[in-house]
Amino acid sequence: MPTITVSLGERAYPIRIEAGLIDRVGAHARQLLGDCSLAIITDDNVAPLYLQRVEASLDAAGLRHSSIVLPHGEPTKCLAQLSNLYDFLCESHVTRTDAIIALGGGVIGDLAGLAAATFLRGIRFIQVPTTLLAQVDSSVGGKVAVDLPQGKNLVGAFYQPAAVLCDPLTLNTLTEDYWRDGLGEVVKYGCICDEELFALLEKCAPGGRQALMAEIDTILQRCIQAKADVVAQDERDTGLRMTLNFGHTIGHAVETCQHYNGLRHGEAVALGMAVITRLTEGRGLTAPGTAARLEALLAALHMPMELPPIPESDLISAMGMDKKAAGKALRVILLDAIGQCRIHTADTDFFRGMR
Predict the structure, then answer these.
(1) E strands of 159-218, at which residues?
(2) Is 116 inside a domain boundary?
């Protein structure tokens, strides 16, 4: 597959998508970064599968390295673990000429990226995403963050990686829940800007994971190219990039109310897309039939579509802490139709009656 470039002038970087790339991280790191020391940050799900292979590739490239293995899961994306990483980087004697490798899914990418953005006022890092969600979305675009009890991703920065290295073969080791986690973000891209991708998903969904993996090169390329194009136009999320948050206002609120220990992010996004589209179609803001088409695809992918038993007032309170809020106004992403979206400004009352 071709290399996709995130065009940000002097800070442009490549996204390489290639089967077997996990065993060539060292060669790419040396080419991109030169002679340096690499601090690998990963979790206890990913380490048994890929850490030794990445370390072997660094050895083969003659690069020094150290590693830390964190607990998996959203609760790891917190200030306490960020502090833990600073201790690790100090103990590893990481300097400003060295770099971090974020090996794992979205949690590791976000956490390691924020450590890179802030340690020594910024060191280089490479994203090596191993989950579908991270490959199609979170590893691209430079949003790095940790969660607070009050809300998701409330402490963070915009800090672009030196490169993103995607190996589609790592998706074969995903459990079904992590697979669904990524599908939520894949469907999002079809909804907001790519009806052809949405139609491809509709075609493949009845065949399950095997049918979708048969088209994974196309799926990855279309999602990543869409995100790269948006980031190049709006790096700091002040306009067009907000459209990437379709389904996230409700989804993030659900995650917050479940204390990051319930639905996975992509599942919460899927639920959020279904709920907001039912709501906006019912109010005449979305073309008739859009919600039914979206829900049919989500059902075929075994995604959640109904809100869990959380009081509506709690969800609305969590939405008030959303990063996309501007004063008392929320920028809500809604669909005109499949493949077309827009930013709609509203207050939290907009969501009353969403059940």
Answers:
(1) 163-166
(2) yes
